[in-house]
Write a structure and sequence with these properties.
Distance between the termini: 41 Å
Number of helices: 3
Shape: globular
Strand content: 25-35%
Bound molecules: zinc ion
Helix content: 10-25%
CATH superfamily of the domain at 2-107: ATPase, nucleotide binding domain
Radius of gyration: 16 Å
Number of strands: 10
CATH class of the domain at 2-107: Alpha Beta
Length: 178
């Protein structure tokens, strides 16, 4: 059973085919298309589907920003991903390809992967910090992702470390990721 995984960041979009043991079989990477991320996402998934690696069972999408996982909706994304806020990503992908899709915050996905097949398989409580275009975190409590209000629990990059400091793209000043 293979699946497609997509990682949407403020700089790059990566997509690959993963087998049931978590091995990456093939990967493609593009610079984030800030003008039309929806079209880019669909075309990258289509490109992988055309490669014909046995049957694909589902599509997982990890994206920067706050995600409403139940609705597959981007609750809030900063100007790193312009126009992404409000996008119904799950619906978009499921309707186009007729495959089940899941969407979650990228740091949550990273933490989940570390727990399932990575360096935290022995741990039930931990925080996975991701350093990319921004700073994010996935929080695992009792072996479960803690998402918080509107998926904001791991948005530690926007904790204010320096009151009145550098302006952040979230609208506050002095955030850690600045
Ligand atoms: Zn901020």
């Amino acid at each position: 059973m293979n699946t497609i995984g997509v990682d949407i960041g403020g700089t790059k979009v990566k997509a690959g085919i993963i087998d049931q043991d978590g091995h990456l079989l093939t990967q493609i990477e593009e610079k984030t298309n800030k003008q039309d991320l929806k079209t880019q996402l669909l075309s990258m998934v289509e490109c992988l589907l055309k490669q014909g690696h046995c049957e694909i069972q589902g599509i997982g999408i990890a994206t920067a920003g706050r995600v409403n996982v139940e609705e597959g909706l981007i609750h809030f994304a900063t100007s790193n991903l312009p126009g992404w806020t409000g996008t119904r990503v799950r619906e978009l992908v499921e309707e186009r390809f007729g495959l089940p899709a899941v969407v979650d915050n990228d740091a949550n996905c990273a933490a989940y992967a570390e727990m399932e097949i990575g360096s935290a398989t022995q741990d039930r409580h931990f925080i996975c910090i991701t350093l990319g275009t921004g700073i994010g975190a996935g929080i695992i409590i009792n072996g479960k992702l803690h998402r918080g209000e509107n998926g904001g629990a791991g948005e530690i990059g926007h904790m204010v470390f320096e009151p009145g400091g550098r302006l952040c793209n979230c609208g506050k000043r002095g955030c850690w990721e600045q």
